[in-house]
Amino acid sequence: MKVTEKDVAYVADLANLDLTDEERSGMLRDLNSILDYVDRLSELDTSNVPPMAQVADRYGVDHEKRGSERFAYASREDILEGLRRSLPHEEALANAPDADDNFFRVPKVIER
Amino acid sequence: MELTSLTIDAARSAIQERKTTAAALAEAHYLRIQKEDGQIGAFLTLSKERALEQAERIDRMAFEGKPLPPLAGVPVGIKDVLSTRGVRTTAGSKILDRYIPPYDCTAVARMEAAGAVVLGKMNCDEFAMGSSNENSAYQPVRNPRDLNRVPGGSSGGSAAAVAADMAVVTLGSDTGGSIRQPASFCGVVGLMPTYGRVSRYGLIAFASSLDHIGPLAKTVKDAAIVLRTIAGRDPMDSTSADVAVPNYVAELDKPVRGLKLGVAKEYFGEGLDYDVRQTVETAIDKLKQLGCEIIPVSLPHTPYAIPTYYVIATAEASSNLARFDGVRYSHRARGVKTLSEVYRRSRDEGFGAEVKRRIMLGTYALSAGYYDAYYLKAQKVRTLLTRDFDEAFQKVDAIVTPTSPTAAFRLGEKSNDPLAMYLADIYTVTADLAGIPGISIPCGVTREQLPIGLQILGKHFDEATILRIAHAYEKAG
Fold first, then answer.
1. What digits encode the pLDDT tens for the residues A65-89?
2. B224, B226, B272, B359: which has the highest count of C-beta atoms within 10 A?
3. Residue of B47, B79, B155, B240 with catalytic role
4. What is the pLDDT of residue A1?
5. Domain that holds residue A19
6. pLDDT in tens, B110-161
7. How does pLDDT run across B427-465, given as a tens digit for each residue?
8. What domains are there in chain B, each with its CATH number?
């Protein structure tokens, strides 16, 4: 068993999930079974293989350039109003479970 | 004229020639939905008002004798992970049960600008995570070819609606096979374009480096018309490619004689159903008869595709789904006292089992101490998988494979075994990882009369060639 109950609790905490006891034991079983299968990746020697984070690296990129310059194809000029005007407050807040006229409302965060 | 079995061109010309109206077409499809969808479950939300307004606009144009745009009056369905302004968009999840997007997805906006009539939103696995549509938080979709079987997933509603004549075409999304596998299970055409070919703006993200939007249709030509409509650079998605969009429809009838088709033994190994193998081999023979040259190729890293996919896709998902926090637009749990409780309880209540499983797996793979062993390792193997295709495509113009190792399975058959479910995507995930385009077309049925799909994979931005091969196969009957 690679993943322990403690790991499940730790990862659930990172992921902002509580999970019931039943969910936790199911998670323990499933994660171990999936990771056992994933372990076959270690059969491959990848020491000289570069990682691939995205497909877009393969087109449009100017490989002569460095840093963000390489991805110049994806940039555009700033436009005063943007490509789409910002949403009016009432539209931006319309889906919020709790809001006033201007803000999303959440329980008090700062303790006194 | 049977109004619910028309292709795009037939529908458009019937309206242009005033043999029917866009409104009558929409009504006929709503009637069919009312009659059929109770047992299939393909639609989650109907957008009747929006549809009839658009139909009226098209009918006015036809009445005034104006030339109609390519999708004029064509009734379409939109997978519920694509945002539609003013029309509820749930992504198949309870956490977005009441979410009304304030803007349109670019692909949807382009469809409507080309005259399409949006009938409603299609059921899917929650956040597009699944291969059977059983992970929808609302209802499973049943396969119109056999109601005891799944339609495939995650675009199960999109595939079933086309198969059952409840829409002429639909849009789906494909992250690991979610357009092609359900197309195969339901006996329709499903096209996943090259990564970056179609803007993802307005698509509720599952795994951003793998997500693609594409059409499901009754014919290859219809898929080509839709692709031409939705493809092309969009300044709202920086990963949408600035690559010219060819006229896919005009290229369909170019000859296929002399095209080189690769067949990879790795796609015909253990786990492939006997009937599927026989049927796909017969289909490949037919392509040979049409003048294509069949060439064996090797894609040696194929056995590592599923583990690679489930690390990368879940890692990206764990990050993308962090935005559902009960504050801005998602469900909030009642009776919570602290902000941390808002996050946790809302997510606990709002997400289903498979989504939680993937968030956990992805978070684990990204967490300190495991990042190199899982996430970085998978990204490196992704390079190897992509190189496999690069090498193969030096020798061939396209690669033909089965779309899925089996035909549609029964509801409940795999729902308790996540790993078995993941293996349903074994022939489709590689294309998502490499970013190459793929199409699934019907190529026969099993002894139980269940549809089988033939998958054709192409080079980056070479949808024209795979559409042409698919069209030639379809025409040959």
1. 777 777 777 777 777 666 777 889 9
2. B226
3. B79
4. 67
5. 5-43
6. 999 999 999 999 999 999 999 999 999 999 999 999 999 999 999 999 999 9
7. 999 999 999 999 999 999 999 999 999 999 999 999 999
8. 3-251 (3.90.1300.10), 260-303+380-476 (3.90.1300.10), 307-372 (no CATH)
pLDDT in tens, B410-426: 999 998 888 888 888 99
Q: Which residues of B, range 276-335, sit inside 8 Å of A by Cβ? A: 301, 303-304, 306-308, 310-311, 318, 322, 325-332
pLDDT, tens digit (0-9, with 9 covering 90-100), for B347-386: 999 999 999 999 999 999 999 889 999 999 999 999 999 9
Number of domains chain A is built from:
1
For chain B, give the longest Cα–Cα distance: 70
Q: Which letter does DSSP use for residue B187 in this model?
A: T
Whether B79 is catalytic is: yes
Tokens for B14, please give them. Answer: 């019937």
Shortest alpha-carbon distance between residue A16 and chain B (Å): 5
Chain A residue with Cα closest to B369: A7
CB spacing of A44 vs B238 below 8 angstroms = no
Strand pairing report for B398-402 and B293-297:
unpaired
Distance from CA of B364 to the nearest CA of A (A): 6
- With an 8 Å Cβ cutoff, are A41 and B359 in contact? no
**Element containing residue B46 per DSSP (H, E):** strand B43-46
Selecting among B47, B136, B154, B346, the annotated active-site residue is B154
The complex's ipTM works out to: 0.92
- The DSSP symbol for B198 reads B
- What per-residue confidence (pLDDT) applies to A112? 67
Beta strands in B74-183 (DSSP E): 75-79, 117-122, 169-174
Among candidates B243, B339, B435 on the partner chain, residue whose Cβ is nearest the Cβ of A107: B339
Using CA coordinates, name the residue in chain B closest to A34.
B419
Chain A residue with the nearest C-alpha to that of B104: A84
Would the CB atoms of B361 and A34 count as touching at under 8 Å? yes
> Tens digit of pLDDT for each residue in B24-36?
999 999 999 999 9
Question: ∠ at Cα B249 (B403, B467), nearest 5°?
Answer: 20
B356 touches chain A (CB under 8 A): yes
pTM for the model stands at 0.96
CATH number of the domain that residue A9 is part of: 1.10.20
Task: Please work out, in degrees rounded to the nearest 5, the angle formed at the alpha carbon of residue B271 by the alpha carbons of B265 and B275.
Answer: 85
**In whole angstroms, what is the distance from residue A18 CA to residue A14 CA?**
10
Taking the C-alpha atoms of residue B170 and residue B176, their distance in angstroms, rounded to an integer, is 18
Is residue A77 a part of any domain in this protein? no
B325 to chain A: closest CA residue: A16
pLDDT of A60 above 70: no
Counting Cα atoms < 13 Å in the Cβ hemisphere of A50 gives 6
